[in-house]
Design a protein that fits this description.
The protein is of the alpha+beta class and 216 residues long. The protein folds into three domains: 100 residues, Mannose-6-phosphate receptor binding domain (Cation-dependent Mannose-6-phosphate Receptor, Chain A); 56 residues, no CATH class; 37 residues. 31% of the residues lie in helices and 31% in strands. It has an eight-stranded mixed sheet, with no helix packed on it. It has a two-stranded antiparallel sheet with strand order 6-7. Helix 1 packs antiparallel against helix 2.
């Protein structure tokens, strides 16, 4: 993400509302502490640093996920980054059960270009983005296709976490690419044929009959 935001790492910011104290430690976690004298006062993790929230090719917030369990799911928190005169946790809410929303004010995001994604990427990924822009401009891909490429770029950059389905899809794609030309396919077939010959010899040495032919 934006290098200038890394100066927030290692620091924590708190906000007290009613009997609860919330603490946000950028790139680390979000915690909640119930400030009462009850014997079972709640104190726990509302989320651990996970990934960025990106909207319109701009960093808009941080997702803290995999917090303490809450019924059937884990607690999670979205931290909105907004311009402010000083670094402070300004507002906390719980829009839906066990999903929290925090507003963090900081002068580090006041510059209009301070949260752009493009400058944080490597040259290779910037080129990939430029190519996608050109394809969209030439109407060779749809808006949906363009967004898919951007998502892949963000995942490759480590800004977003790839979902399990994506990982499976990538592996399948990798396997498909291995056989994308006749030459590659023939080479692979030849290697497998050699392997089968060796295995048949091995089976013969152990007196095990092999049923089938090399073509199979």
């Amino acid at each position: 993400g934006p290098a200038h935001l890394f100066r927030l790492a290692g620091k924590c910011f708190s906000f007290v509302e009613s009997t609860y104290k919330y603490e946000f430690c950028p790139f680390h976690n979000v915690t909640q502490h119930e400030q009462t004298f009850r014997w079972n006062a709640y104190s726990g993790i509302l989320g651990i640093w996970h990934e960025w929230e990106i909207d319109n090719n701009t960093f808009v917030g941080m997702w803290m996920r995999e917090g303490d369990s809450c019924e059937t799911k884990s607690r999670q928190t979205k931290v909105h980054l907004v311009c402010g005169k000083s670094n402070k946790l300004a507002y906390v809410s719980e829009p839906s059960t066990c999903v929290y929303s925090l507003t963090f004010e900081t002068p580090l995001v006041c510059h209009p270009h301070s949260l752009l994604v493009y400058p944080t990427l490597t040259e290779a990924l910037q080129r990939k983005w430029d190519e996608a822009e050109q394809l969209l401009y030439d109407e060779l891909i749809t808006d949906q296709g363009y967004k898919k490429i951007l998502k892949e770029i963000f995942e490759e950059a480590g800004l977003l976490k790839a979902t399990e389905e994506n990982e499976v899809e990538k592996q399948n794609k990798k396997i498909t690419l291995e056989f994308e030309t006749v030459e590659k396919c023939s080479k692979e077939y030849k290697q497998l044929s050699e392997e089968i010959k060796k295995l048949r010899v091995l089976l013969g040495q152990h007196g095990i009959a092999y049923k089938g032919n090399l073509g199979e």
